[in-house]
Write a structure and sequence with these properties.
- InterPro entries: Amidohydro-rel, GlcNAc_6-P_deAcase, Metal-dep_hydrolase_composite, Metal_Hydrolase.
- Keywords: Carbohydrate metabolism, Hydrolase, Metal-binding.
- This is N-acetylglucosamine-6-phosphate deacetylase.
- This protein has one domain (41-327): Alpha-Beta Barrel (TIM Barrel).
- The two termini are 18 Å apart.
- It has a 7-stranded mixed beta sheet with strand order 3-2-1-4-18-19-20, with no helix packed on it. Strands 5-8-9-10-11-12 form a 6-stranded parallel beta sheet. Strands 15-16-17 form a 3-stranded antiparallel beta sheet, with no helix packed on it.
- It has 10 helices and 20 strands.
- With 361 residues, the protein is of the alpha/beta class.
- It has helices at 61-70, 86-101, 137-146, 161-170, 184-193, 214-222, 237-246, 295-304, 309-314, 318-323, and strands spanning 2-8, 11-19, 23-28, 37-40, 42-47, 49-50, 53-54, 74-81, 109-116, 149-154, 174-177, 197-198, 225-228, 249-252, 265-269, 272-277, 280-282, 340-343, 349-354, 357-358.
- Strand 9, helix 3 (137-146) and strand 10 form a beta-alpha-beta unit.
Length: 361
């Protein structure tokens, strides 16, 4: 049982929350009004690493990353790959499969995989290596059999990609537009074909200009969902506010790398070497390369730029869960998974619960 101010889809309730693996009862009690905040656990759909390890390393990396992020309130997540030779992606997926099938003790639930490449534009690599490929349905199906691919980033302007989107959607894969040099028209056409979202909005895509709206413009004009990195480095607060007004269910992701939770220094991001310094992660060229963000810090950042806690929480829990088609996660209602984060007055986690298991702090 937990007591405090409980955030439900209908608003705050002061009271008691009982749970096993699933949430049981929510009982109002005004005597609990002075207690801590109890929020749905965070749902992070773009995670490359943490604790010094990268998803692409394979082996035990997936479990290590899921445990590290759980301590910061993330209760479910997608392990995210990098552009690489297909054999390297295959090895990573083979290692993620068992972690997805059976949640390790003390870890966030790995809901599946986000393939962020290799089906991207060589002209918008960002921190991805230049090993891009045109998308192949047979290759994606083979990878999907190793570990469920829940989200896939592609550049819609690459020949053949637009026609592939409906087939990927039919497999249950959420197609996201990103790492794209495409036009506004390319983005609109991809959405009409069944694309569902946008990868790290504003970053790794053709930007918005009033005579050339680009992929970012297609998102602002037409998207229901898009992910954004609220570390306040990848996107300025003013641009976040513009996106909040334009995209109804804008949601936050960390794009976290192996440098997350680690001191300044050199780390791996797929086959790339990246460097953490003063909270940022960059390539040797100085370009941003993922982040060292955690979801609890994302919440604090969103509140710092003017969102109330309830709205910030929805954008880190309910909206990404809905985007992925996970109605029993990202909200505190009877029958949902008992994925919970308890925050102190400074919005720092004091207790994290994943499917009823209290996570060691």
């Amino acid at each position: 049982m937990l007591t405090g101010r409980i955030l439900t889809p209908d608003g705050w309730i002061a009271g008691r929350l009982t749970f096993g693996e699933r949430i049981g009862a929510i009982e109002a009690d005004t005597a609990c009004a002075g207690g801590p905040l109890i929020l749905p656990g965070f749902v992070d759909l773009h995670v490359h690493g943490a604790a010094g390890v990268d998803i692409m390393q394979g082996g035990s990396a997936g479990a290590t990353v899921a445990r590290a992020h759980a301590r910061h309130g993330t209760t479910s997540m997608l392990g995210t790959t990098m552009t690489a030779h297909p054999a390297a992606i295959r090895r990573a997926l083979e290692s993620l499969g068992p972690v997805i099938a059976t949640r390790p003790a003390g870890a966030a639930r790995m809901l599946g995989v986000h393939l962020e490449g290799p089906f991207i534009s060589p002209h918008k690599l960002g921190a991805q290596p230049p090993e891009t490929l045109p998308a192949s349905l047979d290759l994606i199906r083979a990878w999907h059999a190793l570990a469920p691919v829940r989200a896939l980033t592609l550049a819609p302007e690459i020949p053949g990609h637009l026609e592939l989107i409906p087939q990927l959607a039919a497999l249950g894969i959420r197609v996201q537009l990103g790492h794209s040099a495409g036009t506004y028209a390319d983005g609109v056409a991809a959405l009409a074909a069944g694309a569902a979202g946008f990868t790290h909005l504003f970053n790794g895509m053709s930007g918005f200009a009033h005579r050339a709206p680009g992929i970012a413009g297609a998102a602002l004009a037409h998207a229901e969902y898009a992910e954004i990195i609220p570390d306040l480095e990848h996107v300025a607060p003013g641009a976040i506010h513009a996106a909040l007004r334009a995209i109804p269910k804008l949601y936050g992701v960390t794009d976290a790398t192996a440098a997350t939770g680690m001191p300044d220094g050199e780390y791996a991001l797929g086959s790339q070497r990246v460097y953490k310094c003063v909270g940022c992660v960059r390539l040797a060229t100085g370009s941003l390369a993922g982040s060292a963000l955690t979801m609890d810090q994302a919440l604090r950042n969103l509140v710092a730029i003017g969102l109330d806690v309830a709205d910030a929480s929805r954008r880190l829990s309910e909206y990404p869960a809905d985007y992925l088609g996970e109605p029993a996660r990202g909200r505190i209602v009877p029958g949902a998974w008992a994925d919970l984060v308890v925050l102190d007055a400074d919005l720092r986690p004091v207790t994290v619960v994943v499917e009823g298991e209290a996570i060691p702090r």
